[in-house]
TrEMBL record:
It comes from the Eukaryota. Residues 37-140 form the AMP-dependent synthetase/ligase domain. GO terms for molecular function: CoA-ligase activity. This is AMP-dependent synthetase/ligase domain-containing protein. InterPro entries: AMP-dep_synth/lig_dom (IPR000873), ANL_N_sf (IPR042099). The keyword Ligase applies. Keywords: Ligase.
Length: 171
């Protein structure tokens, strides 16, 4: 009988990664952004994100810089701080993790919503999570306009997306 190479174990019902385990930081105080960028000196020019639709490549160095710029913008312009809830309502793109890690670096709580949610489904999530800010994109803005919550458009807001744009030239 051939060995089972599937990541699924039918006995336990658990999927297990076929990749080697990741060593987690010894201190529980290590933030997710510190953990993500822990090897920046040796990985700065390596791809951190690759958008398969646009061939956009974002290096770890560019990602860290974009995360820092957006975090400062969120803190200074929208007064987002530790413990604040922010709704990220956007499709998968290289901008999504920039927003997520920027919020994490501030200590904000990120609640995410599926881009195919209806306005009623969004209303339930907004009522439950009470976000201070909604981060979205132009194509979804009409679904969140009526909630009376400030909106940051990831594609239009001038928080300096030049770093990600520069990265997209690398293929």
């Amino acid at each position: 009988m051939a060995p089972n190479l599937s990541p699924y174990n039918p006995t336990t019902g658990i999927y297990t990664s076929t990749r080697p385990p990741v060593t987690l930081p010894p201190s529980p105080a290590t933030s997710i952004t510190d953990f993500l960028f822990r090897n920046l000196e040796t990985h700065s020019d390596r791809p951190a994100l690759i958008d398969p639709h646009s061939d956009r490549i974002v290096t770890f160095s560019d990602l860290k810089q974009s995360v820092s710029v957006l975090a400062r913008f969120l803190s200074r312009t929208h007064n987002v701080s530790r413990g604040d809830v922010v709704l990220v309502f956007a499709p998968n793109s290289v901008r999504f993790p920039v927003a997520f890690f920027a919020l994490a670096s501030i200590g904000a709580i990120t609640t995410t919503a599926n881009p195919v949610y209806t306005v009623n489904e969004l209303a339930h999530q907004i009522n439950d999570s009470k976000p201070k800010l909604i981060i979205t994109v132009d194509q979804l803005r009409s679904k969140v306009n009526g909630f009376g919550i400030p909106i940051l458009d990831l594609e239009k807001e001038n928080y300096s997306d030049k770093l990600i744009q520069k990265s997209s030239d690398r293929v």
